[in-house]
Amino acid sequence: MQYELLRSKRKTIAISFDRDGNLVVKAPSWVAKREIDRFVASKEEWILATARRLQRAREKEAALRLSLESGDELYYLGEKRVLTVVREERSRTKIKDVCGRLIMTIPYEADYSYKQEQLEKWYRKEAQRVFEEKAQAFAGAIGVSFQGIHIKDQKSRWGSCSGKGNLNFNWRILMAPEPVCDYVIIHELCHLVYMDHSDNFWYLVERFCPSFRQYKKWLRDNAGLLYKF
User: Fold this and answer.
1) What is the pLDDT of residues 65-77, one digit of tens each?
2) Which of 37, 114, 134, 210 shows the greatest Cβ crowding within 10 Å of its Cβ?
3) What is the pTM assigned to this prediction?
4) 5: how many CB neighbours lie within 10 A of its CB?
5) Phi/psi of residue 64, each to 5°?
C-alpha cells in the first residue's frame, strides 16, 4: 500500500488522508520503516473504508462546484459575496469588492480555468494583507515575533509554522468566518512558543482564543465550503 511518510519528533504513528485523497503516515523519526509498514497493513480495512468515504465526499463536493458565473456566492471572512462577471474587450482582469459583490471584469474568451486562476490570485493577495495585519496584532498580544508570512494552498493543513519563525497559511482560510480565521493564526503563533501540541500549547491557544474547540470543529465539518472553486 503506497503512502507518503512524514517523520518528526512525534511519539506515535498516525494515519490520515490529504485533500487529494492520498494516504499520509506520520511517524516518529526513530521507528523503522518495516514497523511502519506493519502498522499500515494492520489498518488496511479502516484505510480502504475511509478512502471510499472520502471519494464519495469528493464526488459530492465536485457536484457542488461553483460555475464561477454571475450569481455564484463566494465568501470573505464568512461574509457573503455575490459574484458578478463582466466580459469586455480587454487583456487583463480586474476584481473589485463592492457592497457585498465581487465584480470580476474579464476578457470575452476567458474560460473556467482562467476565472478560477484570477479569483485565486485575488484571494491570495487579500489573504497576504489580512493575515499580516492580524498576525502582527495577535503576535503583540501573545508576546512573540515572526519572520514572515507565506500564502499557500496546502492540501492537508490550514497553517504551519517553521522553526525559523515563518508562518504559512492556506489562502482559503480567508473565506472562513473571521473567528475561525483568527483561530488558525493564533494557533500558528502559539507554535512560536511551543513547537508541539502539548497541554501547555493548548492552554496558550485557549488563553487567546477561548472558543478554539468550536472553530476546530467548524473546520472539520465545513472544509468543503472552502473548496468550491
Assistant:
1) 899 999 999 999 9
2) 134
3) 0.74
4) 14
5) -95, 5
